[in-house]
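Quick one:
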Amino acid sequence: MATQTITAPALALLTDLRGFSNIPPFPNDVSCAPLLKLSFKKLLDGDSEESNRLFQASKQLGFFYLDLRDTSEGDSILEDVDKLFRVGEQLFDLDVEEKQKYDFSEENSYFGYKGYGKAIIDKEGTLDRNEFYNVSKDDILALSSPLPAPEILTNNRPLFSSYIHSSHSILSALLTHLNLHLHLLPGTLTSLHRLTGPSGDQVRLLKAPPQDPSAAQPALGAHTDFGSLTLLFNRVGGLQVLPPPSSPDQQPEWLFVRPLPGCAIVNLGDAMSKFTGGLLRSNIHRVLPAPGEQAKVAKYSVVYFSRPEDEVLLKRLGGGDVIPELEDGETEEAVPSKEWVLRRALGRRVGGNVEEGWSGTESVGGGK
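Output:
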C-alpha cells in the first residue's frame, strides 16, 4: 500500500480547521457583519498599514477578527484554546448540584459558576439560556486567595495560566498600537492593564445547549462589554453585532459574526470608550441561536476578558491631542474599575440591579 504524504499546505489546512471539522458549517445565506480581518503577525512586525486598520476598526465598529496564525504566541494560544474547549465539555457535564457549589454571587463575586437561566438578559427580566464559569486571573496567578473550584479546573491550573499569559500578551500588543494612534505617552494603556496588577480579568468557559433556530428569544440580550478588550474563541455561530447606521435615515440591522478557524474575535469594551471620550467604540452585541444546522449542536466558547486594574478610574485620559476634551459645562463620571465591573456583572444576575447591569456606554438604538 502506498504511503500518503500530507503536504505543508494540507497540514496547515488541517491545523486551521482544528475543532471546526466535526461541526456543521456556518451557512452562507445569512447576513454577516463586515468585520476587518487583521493579521497579528503584521501587527507584531510593526506594519503601519495594519496598525491603521486596527485603529479604524476600533473607532468604527469596535469588533474585528485577529488572525493568530504564523506566530509563536498565536500558535500557543490556539493550542491552549483547543484544550480548554475539552475542559469546558467535561466541566459542564458535571451534575448541576456539583456545579452550583461554585456559584459565589451571594458572596458579591462574579467569579465561579453561573447556571442556566440564572441571569437576566434584558430590562424586561427575560432569563438567559446558557451556563458559564468565570476563572479569575488573579486567582490563577496567585495574586489573590484561591477560590474553591471543581477538580477538572484545579487539575488544569497550568493550562489556564498559559492561556492567561498568552491572552494578556496579545491584548497588550493591541493596546500598544492603539496607544500610538491616540498620541498618548508610551506605555499609558498597558500601564493600566498590568498582568500582575489586581483586576477583574477573567477566563470564561461557556456552554449553550442546542436551540431552535426559529426561536426569537436571544440566549444573551443586547449589551456592551464592560471591560477593555475581549478575546473570543468560538466555533458555532450565534453572536450578532449592531453596526452603526451609515446615514441618519437608515435603521440599524443585526448581523451575525461568522466564526473563522485560526482567528479570535476581538471587541472593545466600555473602559476603552470611557478612556477615549467615546472615540473608540464599545459596540452593542447579543447572542441568538446559531443559524442553520449549527443550531442542532451545543455551543461552547472560550473567552478572555481584559479589564483595567481595580483602582483605575474610568474616565478620559489626558496627555494626547487625539482624545476629545470635555466641552464647556460637560462632566463625566469617574468610577473605579472594580466598582464598575461589580455593578455591571452582578446587576445581570437574578435579583440584581437590572439598571446597573445594563447601563453600558451604548444604547440598543445605537446612540451614545
